[in-house]
Amino acid sequence: MCCSAAFPLIPLLLLILSFAARTHEVNVDCNELRMMGQFMCPDPARNHIDPKTQQLRGCTKEGRARVWCIAADEINCTETGNATFTREVPCKWTNGYHLDTTLLLSVFLGMFGVDRFYLGYPGIGLLKFCTLGGMFLGQLIDIVLIALQVVGPADGSAYVIPYYGAGIHIVRSDNTTYRMPRNDW
């Protein structure tokens, strides 16, 4: 009999506990949040993509862009007083060279070196012009290298690629890189 009298109080108690748990907010420095479960970058409510370059707005030559992020529920940022904050994220800096334009130039005018002139390599462009694209072999090689994005613009920028295009991140090895031993080797 005592348990049946307490039964109506259990849902009321659970409701009070869930309300108390929801109103507890934590104030933190949001730049110290580490896991993606604690925040989401960039904030989907803001427009961060530049339609001309298909990259984040404000992308610098160093490959970093400052975007607005939003913290998870019940987290307040001390720097802004609400759940939003800014954070630097990686991006690909572009200078206006389009991959599709470069490929079309390479296929149709590559024998005259127009693709290399467009990318900012006048020496190789002149060599291709004088040798008729290296007897068409240089033109064929350039088509493959540009399609694989091994040859890019001379200023070090990335290609402008439409959303539906495949972006490639090339990992290069030089004297400053080395292989880290793993435990299972």
Radius of gyration from CA coordinates: 27 Å
In the sheet with the most strands, the strands line up as 2-5-7
How much of the sequence is in beta strands? 15-25%
* Total number of strands: 9
Low-confidence stretches: none
Secondary structure tally, helices: 7
Please, what is the oligomeric state? single chain
Element-level helix/strand string: HHEEEEEEEEHHHHHE
Roughly how much helix do the residues carry, as a percent range? Answer: 25-40%
- Form type: elongated
> How would a textbook summarize the main sheet?
3 strands, antiparallel
Please, what is the average pLDDT? 83
Structural class by SSE content: alpha/beta
Q: Separation of termini?
A: 67 Å
Describe the protein in words:
A hairpin with a 4-residue loop joins strand 3 and strand 4 (55-56). The mean pLDDT is 83. 32% of the residues lie in helices and 19% in strands. It is elongated. Strands 2-5-7 form a three-stranded antiparallel beta sheet, with no helix packed on it. The protein has a two-stranded parallel ribbon with strand order 1-6. Strands 3-4 form a two-stranded antiparallel ribbon. The N and C termini lie far apart (67 Å). It is an alpha/beta fold and 185 residues long. The longest helix has 14 residues, at 9-22.
